[in-house]
């Protein structure tokens, strides 16, 4: 029998994966995920691959659950309708942390123009768009891919711009001309809607209508335009990882592609794109699992699936004041605290809360755990 000298067999070793180098190279292109797609890739790069297969944890539960849609028609004119709306919003905020609103007062043509504005920014000339690419969070307008690119465990399949429009209105030159006018007009309308929503939420927890507004909840607004390109292997990655929002309240405009899911009763439930509707969700800083209402309202985990159909665009308006220099402390509202309902969270500033969120990134854990008593 002839023995094979195995010492002579050269087994090639797999090259060590350098994630940091891949992230750095991706960031330096300043073209985001869209830039990758434009090169014609047919496989998702390793930096985007989720540790577990997406479909294994997805349960489509639309038949089991009916996602709340609330009609705001008559909210200002009809006291009976207003009482009913307050009850509906209160119940949705306690049980879902999410709801859709229709007849919200923002014209449908403006909704369409805003979606077109997001699309126009991301699909403009690459060299023009690159001028706005930055990771400097102090800028009024930023464009990049994944704010937590170098800190998160996995990269999301999306590009984003952010625009801070309140409380200090931006100068025209601080916003890109391709979407400037519609962004200012739309966010101005969302601020008005926010006033109404904060009144309803205050009434729903038994406070005076202006209570939350007087606390500064409606002062600041940051608009986040998301662009999710078509993905060649959507089962391997996510458009946005599981997270809860680090704000008081979010008002989301989404197109008809779909992909947004809310974690409800341990089921991932699709948020159905509804013509003319806006999606509203409670943020971490406002309500429960949250600081101010001491866990009465729910700030709920949600995510966005990647999709072979694309691009998907959305514009999320975050009511938040982390860009205002203030030492105001936020914690459970004193009127809601009692021996039977002791505080669950320590007081914190918005800056401290946001800094912790940004440093942590979208790692699947709750920012609130850091502030729990």
From TrEMBL:
<dbReference type="InterPro" id="IPR005123">
    <property type="entry name" value="Oxoglu/Fe-dep_dioxygenase_dom"/>
</dbReference>
<dbReference type="Pfam" id="PF03171">
    <property type="entry name" value="2OG-FeII_Oxy"/>
</dbReference>
<dbReference type="InterPro" id="IPR044861">
    <property type="entry name" value="IPNS-like_FE2OG_OXY"/>
</dbReference>
<keyword id="KW-0560">Oxidoreductase</keyword>
<dbReference type="Pfam" id="PF14226">
    <property type="entry name" value="DIOX_N"/>
</dbReference>
<dbReference type="GO" id="GO:0002238">
    <property type="term" value="P:response to molecule of fungal origin"/>
</dbReference>
<dbReference type="GO" id="GO:0031418">
    <property type="term" value="F:L-ascorbic acid binding"/>
</dbReference>
<protein>
    <recommendedName>
        <fullName>Fe2OG dioxygenase domain-containing protein</fullName>
    </recommendedName>
</protein>
<dbReference type="GO" id="GO:0046872">
    <property type="term" value="F:metal ion binding"/>
</dbReference>
<dbReference type="InterPro" id="IPR027443">
    <property type="entry name" value="IPNS-like_sf"/>
</dbReference>
<dbReference type="GO" id="GO:0009805">
    <property type="term" value="P:coumarin biosynthetic process"/>
</dbReference>
<keyword id="KW-0479">Metal-binding</keyword>
<keyword id="KW-0408">Iron</keyword>
<comment type="similarity">
    <text>Belongs to the iron/ascorbate-dependent oxidoreductase family.</text>
</comment>
<feature type="domain" description="Fe2OG dioxygenase">
    <location>
        <begin position="217"/>
        <end position="322"/>
    </location>
</feature>
<dbReference type="InterPro" id="IPR026992">
    <property type="entry name" value="DIOX_N"/>
</dbReference>
<keyword id="KW-0847">Vitamin C</keyword>
<dbReference type="GO" id="GO:0016706">
    <property type="term" value="F:2-oxoglutarate-dependent dioxygenase activity"/>
</dbReference>
